[in-house]
């Protein structure tokens, strides 16, 4: 863990250099302070992800890839698609991951046991690039598995899979940032901050579940983009605010506030 401290500090510095000027120049919420409520908890989630849980997720995906190497159906499928162009397999991996994530994310909001963990992410009452890291580790393992199963099934090498993880992670940070950007066709393809901000509004069933593939929300009737940005962000149910309490929150009874 201590070996990761320098790279974690560099990552935070790079994100600050990129996003702080962007959020200052093009804010979605102009009255939002940098030293906002909940920032300490979000920084703790950032540290937890980079120092521990990201490494565990990589180990989990590597183990899952090795596990499927012994499944005859998967091996036969990989032999069948192995001659396909690499670019085509990468596109299929991305599209397949987006499709699984859409329905997996929609299930997180619809089914109570999954929502208990996913709700941790939605407890942020202010959004910025740091808030993007507020995620329960078990919730993170769930989403990383869904996003990368198609790539693993297609037999893409693990470094290509991790490349997809890195790209999605960076774009997810932008989606949560306190910015108002006109991304045009890029936003229609990969999602935009304004679209995702509405996903974080108080209504748990408000839509916009396909974080990086808005066309799926349009296709399945869950696209939601009113004008402007939501006034209130978060969850309606009472919740704790500290990092460790938020990690424990999903395991407590329903009256766990």
Write a structural description.
With 257 residues, the chain is mainly alpha-helical. It has one domain. It is 62% helix and 0% strand. The protein contains 11 helices and no strands. α4 runs antiparallel to α6 and α6 crosses α7. The longest helix has 30 residues. The radius of gyration is 19 Å and the shape is globular. The protein starts with a helix and ends in a 9-residue tail after the last helix. The relative contact order is 0.14. The mean pLDDT is 91.
Helical stretch tally: 11
Q: Determine the structural class based on helices, strands and strand pairing.
A: mainly alpha
Provide the succession of SSEs.
HHHHHHHHHHH
Approximately what portion of the residues adopt beta-strand conformation? under 5%
Number of distinct beta strands? 0
* Main sheet properties: none
Low-confidence segments, ≥5 residues, pLDDT <50?
A: none
In short:
With about 260 residues, this protein is an all-alpha fold. About 60% of the residues lie in helices and about 0% in strands.
Q: What characteristics describe this protein?
A:
257 residues; mainly alpha
Secondary structure layout:
Blueprint: H1 5-25, H2 39-68, H3 72-81, H4 86-110, H5 112-122, H6 137-153, H7 158-176, H8 185-190, H9 193-199, H10 214-220, H11 243-248
Helix pairs in contact: 2-6, 4-5, 4-6, 6-7
């Amino acid at each position: 863990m201590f070996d990761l401290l320098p790279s974690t500090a560099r990552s935070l510095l790079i994100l600050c250099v990129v996003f702080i000027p962007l959020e200052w120049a093009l804010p979605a919420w102009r009255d939002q302070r940098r030293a906002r409520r909940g920032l300490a908890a979000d920084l703790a989630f950032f540290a937890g992800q980079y120092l521990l849980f990201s490494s565990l997720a990589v180990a989990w995906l590597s183990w899952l890839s090795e596990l499927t190497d012994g499944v005859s159906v998967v091996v036969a499928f990989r032999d069948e698609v192995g001659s396909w162009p690499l670019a085509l397999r990468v596109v299929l991996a991305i599209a397949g991951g987006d499709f699984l994530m859409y329905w997996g994310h929609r299930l997180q909001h619809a089914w109570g046991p999954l929502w208990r963990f996913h709700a941790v992410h939605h407890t942020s009452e202010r959004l910025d690039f740091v808030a993007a890291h507020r995620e329960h580790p078990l919730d993170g393992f769930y989403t990383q598995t869904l996003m990368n199963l198609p790539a693993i099934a297609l037999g893409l090498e693990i470094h290509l899979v991790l490349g997809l993880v890195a790209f999605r992670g960076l774009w997810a940070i932008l989606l949560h940032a306190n910015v108002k950007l006109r991304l045009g066709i890029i936003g229609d393809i990969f999602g935009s901050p304004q679209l995702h901000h509405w996903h974080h509004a108080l209504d748990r069933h408000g839509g916009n579940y396909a974080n990086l593939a808005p066309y799926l929300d349009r296709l399945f009737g869950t696209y939601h983009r009113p004008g402007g940005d939501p006034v209130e962000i978060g969850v309606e149910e009472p919740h704790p605010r500290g990092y460790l309490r938020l990690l424990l929150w999903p395991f407590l009874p329903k009256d766990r506030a």
